[in-house]
């Protein structure tokens, strides 16, 4: 229970009224997360959609004129058949010109009396050419070359021939420009696709890529106007272990992206009759495309980087690039993520680095926008201005974490959890203990302070998954912690709000008293939550069994998360339960997030086992019950008290685990719709004062 949105015991009740005005749990005590459930997929991610794009005249894979480019672009191995391009531009439809209407055959040239022309009488000799004043001739200036907005598709690209999948391999798009000599280049790295090998970048990726010159929801709102070439390459379908996975092996090698960009500029020039070179380079990535971005940043220095819920992997390459750019006062980095999900850890690591720059060009921001809609909502705004204050769904740092419930059929998200990355198996979130690394400092409100980070190695695992086991140490003596919360308590009014109530308990009590004060809220959540917290305070450290069968029966959120994992393919898989995904207040307060959730189909395994309700599955869970005091939010005091109790030997962290065999019918069970209580009619009698 250690990620940014899931650490520890007290969870936010999503559907249960909060008794007594107490704070709700996001991490002991935190703001409400809400219980919004997304049951349908986004309109842009509908695999069976019949919608055809009609942007700049594009009408399908066979529209536009076809050109063949071969070795002139330096591709000696280029197969001319693989070089077919589709140009879709306002300037590309020469066949539409109505040249046939001119009747040249009917022109009466024979009637012209050329033979009778008296050429001999022409007095050419008298023409005074020497006196002609050419310098005064009023020559018209040459008209500038105008490039209209257009699109070009490359069905098979020689540089991407190793990428398996459905054509086209490459999409280029540009805006209107006049006599360009340089153009900015934007390259987007897309994420996974629920369509698998059938994914088409024009139909399934371009509309959600953020590669837009206007607001896609309101095309009359103009975005980027600088001469720009947009590049959308198709990734490599790599379904081993996950039928939705796409990677970019052809572009992550040193120099590979540069060659693709130079080739794209040459094709753009041939299609528009211009010769241009690259100006600024902007790299954008969505979801699983972030892994390729990290590899590319190891050897490429773009001018800007925009990531859309894409930092599932170690962000070291991005952090190193950002530091260099901030040191020189150039560049821009905008990171958007959904709090509490697989991208939260890495995104917040980046935030600790760029936050000190206090620059509008370097920001890490949280959003409530659904995962697949993030690039479309914000991409055009960032292309228009990398320092823009984004509109439409940015969450302030103080706001409640809101976790995204994966949408039915949402292939973009399938499989793109931290568990897909070897770097994240068992990665610790030691920053939540109040520290990042030995040489770094904590980021407490009262200023930096050195803290000691213990080694972080999980002693247990479930298959390839190793839960976080931080065993945090106090970030400061309890007396110092009290000073901080005393100041907060003194600022409260006569009526304590949720945060002030907890802070005042910490300000004037010892850690044990704070724990007892917190127990009231835990009891209100339910007896299971109270039993686990009492076990923690009992300091025995013995393992507690998770009643997996009961959890699956009670929690629609747990069933939904397992269904999503099953949909990825295979006969076994791994996922995690975030603390706000239970949709059950008692389970949230009892377990928080569960790092490792494994499922496997029990033999005999039929080929069509997903269609058989009687299919038996074994569900196993493993997690470490502990607290993290350095997290932002109203729960820091309660977490700090619990960590202090562990350090004093008055409480002890412990493992929780369990397994159960259930049927597929039980996993697929849907929660009953809540019954709306009839509104109480109130008769108000107003007294006549006249």
TrEMBL record:
Residues 1-66 are annotated as: Disordered. Residues 1-15 have a biased composition (Polar residues). It comes from the Bacteria. Residues 29-40 have a biased composition (Acidic residues). This is Alpha/beta hydrolase.
């Amino acid at each position: 229970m250690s990620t940014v949105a899931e650490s520890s015991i007290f969870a936010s009740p999503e559907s249960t009224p909060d008794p007594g005005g107490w704070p709700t749990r996001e991490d002991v005590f935190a703001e409400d997360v809400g219980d919004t459930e997304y049951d349908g997929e986004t309109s842009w991610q509908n695999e069976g959609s019949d919608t055809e794009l009609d942007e700049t005249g594009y009408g399908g894979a066979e529209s536009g004129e076809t050109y063949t480019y071969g070795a002139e672009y330096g591709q000696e191995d280029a197969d001319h058949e693989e070089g077919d391009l589709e140009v879709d531009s306002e300037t590309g439809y020469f066949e539409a010109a109505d040249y046939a209407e001119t009747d040249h055959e009917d022109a009466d040239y024979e009637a012209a009396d050329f033979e009778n022309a008296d050429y001999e009488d022409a007095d050419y000799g008298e023409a005074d050419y020497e006196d002609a004043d050419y310098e005064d001739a009023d020559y018209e200036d040459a008209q500038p070359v105008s490039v209209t907005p257009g699109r070009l598709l490359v069905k098979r690209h020689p540089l991407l021939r190793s990428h398996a999948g459905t054509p086209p391999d490459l999409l280029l798009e540009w805006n209107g420009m006049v006599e360009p000599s340089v153009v900015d280049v934007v390259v987007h790295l897309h994420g996974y696709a629920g369509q698998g090998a059938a994914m088409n970048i024009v139909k399934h990726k371009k509309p959600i890529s953020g590669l837009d010159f206007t607001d896609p929801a309101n095309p009359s709102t103009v975005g980027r106007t600088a001469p720009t070439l947009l590049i959308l390459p198709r990734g490599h379908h790599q379904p081993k272990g996950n039928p939705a996975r796409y990677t970019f092996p052809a572009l992550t090698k040193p120099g590979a992206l540069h060659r693709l960009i130079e080739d794209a500029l040459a094709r753009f020039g041939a299609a528009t009759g211009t010769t241009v070179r690259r100006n600024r380079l902007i790299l954008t990535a969505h979801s699983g495309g972030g892994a390729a971005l990290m590899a590319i940043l190891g050897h490429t220095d773009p001018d800007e980087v925009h990531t859309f819920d894409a930092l599932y992997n170690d962000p070291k390459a991005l952090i190193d690039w950002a530091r260099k750019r901030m040191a020189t006062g150039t560049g821009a980095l905008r990171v958007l993520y959904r709090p509490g999900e697989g991208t939260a850890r890495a995104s917040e690591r980046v935030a600790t680095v760029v936050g000190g720059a206090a620059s509008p060009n370097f920001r890490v921001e949280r959003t409530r926008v659904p995962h697949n809609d993030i690039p479309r909502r914000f991409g055009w705004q960032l292309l228009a201005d990398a320092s823009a204050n984004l509109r439409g769904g940015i969450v302030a740092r103080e706001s409640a974490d809101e976790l995204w419930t994966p949408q039915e059929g949402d292939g973009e998200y399938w499989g793109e959890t931290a568990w897909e990355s070897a770097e994240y198996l068992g990665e610790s979130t030691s920053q939540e203990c109040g520290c990042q690394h030995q040489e770094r400092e904590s980021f407490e409100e009262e200023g930096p302070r050195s803290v000691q980070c213990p080694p972080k190695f999980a002693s247990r695992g479930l298959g390839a998954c190793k839960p976080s086991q931080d065993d945090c140490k106090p970030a400061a003596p309890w007396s110092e912690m009290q000073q901080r919360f005393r100041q907060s308590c003194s600022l409260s009014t006569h009526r304590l709000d949720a945060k002030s109530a907890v802070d005042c308990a910490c300000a004037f009590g010892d850690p044990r008293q704070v724990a007892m004060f917190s127990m009231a809220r835990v009891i209100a959540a339910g007896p299971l939550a109270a039993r686990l917290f009492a076990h923690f305070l009992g300091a025995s450290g013995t393992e507690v069994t998770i009643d997996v069968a009961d959890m699956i029966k009670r929690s629609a959120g747990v069933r939904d998360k397992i269904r999503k994992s099953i949909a990825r393919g295979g006969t076994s898989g791994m996922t995690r339960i975030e603390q706000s995904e239970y949709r059950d207040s008692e389970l949230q307060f009892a377990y928080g997030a569960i790092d490792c959730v494994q499922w496997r189909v029990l033999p005999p395994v039929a080929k069509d086992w997903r269609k058989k309700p009687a299919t038996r599955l074994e569900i196993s869970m493993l997690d470490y019950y502990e607290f993290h005091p350095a997290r932002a939010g109203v729960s820091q005091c309660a977490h700090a008290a619990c960590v202090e109790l562990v350090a004093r030997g008055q409480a002890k962290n412990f493992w929780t685990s369990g397994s159960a065999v259930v049927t597929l019918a039980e996993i697929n069970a849907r929660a009953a719709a809540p019954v709306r209580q009839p509104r109480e009619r109130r008769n108000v009698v107003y007294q006549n004062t006249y």
